[in-house]
Amino acid sequence: MNLEKTSMKEYLQSHDSLTYRFAGVSMRPMLRQESDLVTIVPYDGKGLQKYDVALYEKESSNKYILHRVVDVMEKDGKRVYTFLGDNCPEKEPDIPDETIIAVLKEFYRGDKKCSVTDKGYRIYSKVHYFFYPLRRVYYLLRKRIAKIPFARNIYHKLFKRGKKN
Prior knowledge:
Blueprint: H1 8-13, E1 18-21, E2 37-42, E3 53-58, E4 63-75, E5 78-84, E6 92-96, E7 100-109, E8 112-115, H2 119-130, H3 132-146, H4 149-159
Antiparallel strand pairs: 1-2, 2-7, 3-4, 3-7, 4-5, 5-6, 7-8
């Protein structure tokens, strides 16, 4: 089946899983763009747990987003989630259960397979989210520094990797 002509949602309705090359930077450092393979399985509708990584369709843009659940709650009698990409400064609240399409089962970095049931993966998920407040401060400072010319130059010299002169 050609995924260019078939949506992931349609594909998963008739298949047990889908493995594809991850695109985007929102889940770094866990997933590397255009390098790592991810395997997702159709969402069974029984609810997600905190730290699960799920694929949902963003209603405002009709795009598929693969992010981590950081909060599960009930609103107006319906289950809703707050999602956060591992490399994102902002949470996405109030994502309804019916927009969830699939759940991450495993990913591959080169020949190495990492299952979401692995102990190391579960520890990574919790520790990475624990440091979210520090990442958020870093993102906010980075935006402010970018507006100050001399500070921007120092920042680029210290933190940006680029061509050496």
